[in-house]
Specification:
The chain contains 8 helices and 10 strands. By secondary structure, it is of the alpha+beta class. β2 (49-55) and β3 form a beta hairpin. It is elongated and about 60 Å long. Keywords: DNA damage, DNA repair, DNA-binding, Glycosidase, Hydrolase, Lyase, Metal-binding, Multifunctional enzyme, Zinc, Zinc-finger.
C-alpha cells in the first residue's frame, strides 16, 4: 500500500508534470471506485489542475478553484502517468485494472489502476477534502507533530504499538511497511504496550518515526511514478525481508502473519533475541 512517502512523491510528480494543464476528459471505468455522484464526472472537463497534495495516505488533486479529486490507492492501487495515450477512444466500463483516466490538454494524463480481484481503490470528487470520511477522521500528519503531541497521540490509544502506529486516527500517513521500519530503528517490539512505554522510549520512537519517514520522502520525491515501488523496496531494512539478514546485527529477519497481512522484525534488535510466536498458531510471546 502506498504510504506517506510514496503519496507525497506522487503529489510532487503531479505538481511538476500536470499542474497548469487543463483536463480534457475525466473517464470512469470502474464505477465502484468513484464514491461520489455530485459533482458529476463531467464537471471535471475544462478545469485546470491547480495543485496536488496529500492528507495522510490520501492523494489530493486540486481542480479549478473549488474541486478536489481525492484518492485512496488502498493496497493494490497506483497512479500511472502517461506522456501519451495509445488510443483517443473513451474507456469502456471494466477496462481491466484501470479505474479512472484523466486526459490532459497536451495529450498526457494519468490512470488510477488497481491490481487483483479485491477492489478497494476509492476516488472522490468533492468541494472540500473534509467531505471524504477517511480524511475527516485523520489524526495529525506523522511528520507534522511535535514530540509532546506525538507522545499524547500514542498514549491516547491503549494497545500494542504496531497497531497504534498504523491507526490513521492517531497519526496520519504511517502504514504497515514503514511502521515495521520505525520499530526496527527504535529497537522496539511491535507488541510493546503503549501504556508501558517510558518517556525515553517515546522519544526514541518519535525520533525513529521522523528519521524513517523523512528519509523515505527524500528518496522518493523526484522519482517518476513508475520507479517509486522499486525505490520503496530497496530502502527497507526488515519489512518484506523475511529470512534475510538484518542489516544492523546480521540476525535473521522474522515474520508474524495475520489473516490478511504480516509484520517483519529482527529478534536481536527488537525483542531481546526472543522470536515472537505466529498468532495463527499460538499466543504472542512478549
Amino acid at each position: 500500500m502506498p504510504e506517506l512517502p510514496e503519496v507525497e512523491a506522487l503529489a510532487a510528480y503531479l505538481r511538476e508534470r500536470a499542474v497548469g494543464h487543463t483536463v480534457e476528459r475525466f473517464e470512469v471505468s470502474s464505477f465502484s471506485a468513484l464514491k461520489t455522484y455530485d459533482p458529476a464526472p463531467s464537471a471535471v472537463a475544462g478545469l485546470k489542475i491547480t495543485n496536488a497534495g496529500r492528507h495522510g495516505k490520501f492523494l489530493d488533486v486540486m481542480l479549478g478553484d473549488d474541486l478536489h479529486l481525492v484518492v485512496h490507492l488502498a493496497r493494490a492501487g497506483w497512479l500511472h502517468y502517461r506522456d501519451a495515450f495509445k488510443s483517443p477512444a473513451p474507456l469502456k466500463p471494466g477496462s481491466g485494472p484501470i479505474a479512472v483516466r484523466v486526459r490532459l490538454d497536451d495529450g498526457s494524463g494519468f490512470d488510477l489502476t488497481e491490481a487483483g480481484t479485491q477492489k478497494s481503490l476509492a476516488a472522490y470528487l468533492v468541494r472540500d477534502p473534509a467531505e471524504v470520511p477517511g480524511v475527516a477522521r485523520l489524526g495529525p500528519d506523522a511528520l507534522a507533530v511535535s514530540r509532546d503531541e506525538f507522545a499524547e497521540r500514542i498514549r491516547s490509544r491503549k494497545g500494542q504499538i504496531k497497531g497504534v502506529l498504523v491507526d490513521q486516527e492517531v497519526l496520519a500517513g504511517i502504514g504497515n511497511a514503514y511502521s515495521d521500519e520505525i520499530l526496527h530503528v527504535a529497537r522496539m517490539s511491535p507488541f510493546a504496550l503503549t501504556g508501558k512505554l517510558t518517556d525515553e522510549q517515546i522519544t526514541t520512537l518519535y525520533e525513529a518515526t521522523r528519521s524513517v519517514e523523512t528519509d523515505a520522502v527524500t528518496r522518493s520525491v523526484g522519482q517518476k511514478a513508475a520507479e517509486l515501488k522499486g525505490e520503496k523496496r530497496a530502502g527497507m531494512r526488515v519489512h518484506a525481508r523475511t529470512g534475510l539478514p538484518c542489516p544492523v546485527c546480521g540476525d535473521t529477519v522474522r515474520e508474524v502473519s495475520f489473516a490478511d497481512k504480516s509484520l517483519q522484525y529482527c529478534p536481536t534488535c527488537q525483542t531481546g533475541g526472543k522470536p515472537l510466536a505466529d498468532r495463527r498458531l499460538s499466543k504472542l510471546i512478549r
